[in-house]
Amino acid sequence: MPERFDIRLGEAPPADDELHGPGLASATWPTVRQAKTARNCANGCIAGCVHSVCEEYGADTAAAIFERTGNERSAVKVTTTTTLNAMLLDKAQQHAPKSAEMFEEAKRRVPGGAVRNRFWWPLPIYVERGEGPYVFDIDEHRYIDCNLAFGPLVLGHRHPAVTAAIEDQLARGVIFGAPSSHELELAGLITEHVVGADWLCFLNSGTEAVHAAIRIARAASGRSKVGKFEGGWHGWTDTAMASFGRSSSDATRPGPMSDSLGVPDSALAEMVVLPYNDFAAIDIIKDRAGEMACVIIEAVQGGAGGIPSRSDFLRAVETACRQCGVYFILDEVVTGFRLGASGAAGLYDVTPDLTTLGKAIGGGLPIGAVCGKEELRNVIEKPGAHVVIAGTFSANPVTLAAGQAQLMTLLESPHTYPELNSLGERLREGVQAVCADEGVKARVTGEGSLWGLHVTDVQPSSMRDRVNANHQVARALPMYLNREGVMMSGPIHLGFLSTEHTPAHVDQIVEAHRRAFAEMRKDGLL
Length: 526
Hints:
Elements: E1 4-7, E2 25-27, E3 36-39, H1 46-57, H2 59-65, E4 76-78, H3 81-95, H4 97-107, E5 127-131, E6 134-137, E7 142-145, H5 160-172, H6 181-193, E8 199-203, H7 206-221, E9 225-229, H8 265-268, E10 271-274, H9 280-288, E11 292-297, E12 300-301, E13 307-308, H10 311-324, E14 327-331, H11 343-348, E15 354-358, E16 368-372, H12 378-381, H13 397-411, H14 416-438, E17 443-447, E18 450-454, H15 471-483, E19 486-487, E20 493-496, H16 503-522
Parallel strand pairs: 7-19, 9-10, 9-11, 11-14, 14-15
Antiparallel strand pairs: 1-3, 2-4, 5-6, 6-7, 8-16, 12-13, 15-16, 17-18, 18-20
């Protein structure tokens, strides 16, 4: 089977035995106006080619390429992306008709239908309530929740300790403007365990925490440029919104690529983009240290699908920053108090100058925090000109009470994290085994109680290794898992476990992947 089909004007079709695969519309090999190239799908079938053509050139071009031409060769079956999407939407609507109806109404009032619509395709499941490891939708389906609000709910839904703490604070008041004792108590609990944290400031989100950390580093260094790694998600501010999902042509010295409209060129000019898990990054740090205030990195890239750093690489980044006088920021918004009490810093044996936190430290309510070494305290406390960190709802007592209850519960037993991380390993091994059994070219990544699935036969160590992944399968898989009773988001297949999940739940999740793959094969996606 050839690796690629080159479709050229007037060209004869491939041999019949090269064309196979499921589909809905009949067509013969085309005659087209211009040379076009389309990749095979994972199974080498022509359906994969038309998917690629649709993605690259649009459905109209794909339809023209695969129209009936009267060629003498026998007809082959192909599926256009448009037809496939319609079929998947119909499946989703049949599964969750009330969600489908609500989504149609929401699209008239909310751009895209939901704030996070990009994670739910072809339509979002509207959740009514959560309990332990489960969520329940408005169509009365129960799901094992592997999304867990994108990670904060390490104790699962409505944990008694967290719920009681919230209810107790609600009875006292929700916000005062003045500080509450919860600020001191939660800050003390966090700094006791986070590596390199001598002080802490609370904010309202991980995005705000990153924004504050970068501002502190700029103020302390007197420099403005920020080093960040391709594939790293550090929030949606102009400062951080570069090269998360897009990459430039140069793999070893990538240039900044905007991931959003509305980001000015001046913001991109402040970014020094670095290749992830590639030691070429060390040379760039050394070459441009005189311009950079800081380098920020995730030890596990959550937004890229749970891709871990190589431990030697992360330590090399820290060492380079130390040698060059560049502040080393570890973004632990996803990993903090999820991988363990000391987060990724403890796991990878690094000591950041600044750490950003979020998600888990709020017990399910909005929160962010920046913490760091004693030497950086003065740029915040300095009389007169100092770094401003503000927010009406920052350090509100309801969130702090919930976060304190969650962390105290997580830390009360030395067995909590080993058991939770063991579940994560069981799940990763199980899903990888199912992929092998079902002949699905996919690789599982992750660390601790989080994991990612990448529909490619290359073990990804950076976002660039996902370029040739089957994005259609990755996008559709969560819908098939929903139908099997598992809640998962996409197209980045990033999942989380909680202390409420059991080995039995993990085994059910693994088998749900098996059934989902089998159904996808029937529908022509695999």
